Amino acid sequence: MQKISHNEWPEIVFGSSESAQSQAIRRAVKTGKLHKIAPKLYTSNFKETPASVVARNCYQILGEFFPSAVISHRSALEGGVHDNAIILTYKYTKKISLPGLQIRLISGHGAAAGDTPFMSELFMASRARALLENLTQSRGHEEIKKNLSRHQIEEMLDKLCRIYGEEELNHLRDQARQLAKILHLEKEFKLLEKIISAMLGSQSIKSLHSENARARAMGKPFDAPRLELFSALFAFLKKEILPLKKQAIHSTQQLHNLAFFEAYFSNYIEGTEFAVDEAADIIFHHKLTPQRPQDAHDITATFQIVANTAEMNKTPKSADELITLLKKRHNILMETRNDKQPGVFKTIANRVGNTIFVLPELMEGTFLKAFSLYENLDPGIARAIFMMFLVSEIHPFLDGNGRIARMMMNAELVHTGECRIIIPTVFREDYLLALRQLSRNNVADGYVRMLLRAQAFTHSFDFSEYQKALQQLTASHAFLEPHEGKLTF
Predict the structure, then answer these.
(1) 415: Cα separation from own chain's centroid
(2) For 202-211, which contacts have Cβ atoms below 8 Å and span 24 or more sequence positions?
(3) What is the pLDDT of residues 365-417, one digit of tens each?
(4) Which of 127, 311, 313, 366 has a CA between 20 and 30 Å from the CA of residue 61?
(5) Which tens digit of pLDDT belongs to each residue from 164-209?
(6) Which residues of the chain form CATH 1.10.3290.10?
(7) Assigned superfamily of 224-484
């Protein structure tokens, strides 16, 4: 029972059956110290709306009105109040409205094994219990829906499997089997068992509703959030009319100069830093660098790929060809770095900062799904922009992903005779920021504009003579660090 100081009322005050407290509350209402916001519910807060007061104190209110109730059904899977509504399993069935909060009480079993104490005398249903409850039948036109859809449940199970492995689904199934008897949800357990068995490949997938769940059952699970990103970029590129910048290569020397600067800047971005003259000696004069043999190989291997017209004319016609091309080019690039598993997709998750890239077991399925978007874009710049982000965001290798992504991008451009894209050192922060904006905030416009600017920059140079190109790039601040200057044309 709450204890009330009549001199200083708390924000939330509950009606009382004790005569003294009840009279004190009535006097406080008359004198303007409290006001009633619902039956047996008062507040001393006159500055905010009743809905705001209820929202801030919702679990205290629920615990007082419905002690030992279980947050259940969809509310347990959504973490409590969602869209200003909550489902509670309690002693009786009823719908109650408070300012800014809809409550649906469902008569049922109290706290069971696995349910955990929550705030203010409430309990939170275990995940196994909540899954069973969400598979109960619902009426078609419920004002407050008690269940997530079958599709949403399958998506949740797929995500659990993706993060914690198949063992988690088996564990949930075992827990649900025991709870089904206690909660009298045997029919719901049979349905849950059917879904999990289908997802794990031991039953027909025809019963599955979710594309993610079906893909997992077929052994091709994919990263659904990443696919949403790829779809958003696809939609943006599909509606844009992108500029066409052709690049004719008239001589071997012009190709080699262009390829040199492409390889130089691509490696510099990744931390393989040479002075430009030193890098030119390595590429053009085969100068040995005993102190940095692996770094020298990185820039040489990059040059060998991007200077090879036949290789750079190859673009994938299927998801399998895409994977083959990626592995082949990575094997050449990382040949001397055995610890980086050249030509082999990662087997452990990788990350940069807070970004965790596509998990190893989801890569093949994600490439397969994303390829259908890629092949529906126009060849050339649109596919190049999409391909660069696809490889960068999946991050399929332990190392070298950025260089491979830019190679794959420029191969799309070479294939259609369009100008390549070089990312100079001074433009690195713009490049990385635009990638992060798309990856984390789904902002495609800045990413696309950044690459189009870099292409326009590359298109403005004449690479037929090495020294002339070097002078022009220097005058454009290309070799400066981002904090030292800005890119100029």
Answers:
(1) 31
(2) 208/154, 209/150, 209/151, 209/154, 210/151, 210/154, 210/155, 210/158
(3) 899 989 999 999 999 999 999 999 999 999 999 999 999 999 999 999 999 99
(4) 127
(5) 888 999 999 999 999 999 999 999 999 999 999 988 877 777 778 8
(6) 224-484
(7) Fido-like domain (1.10.3290.10)
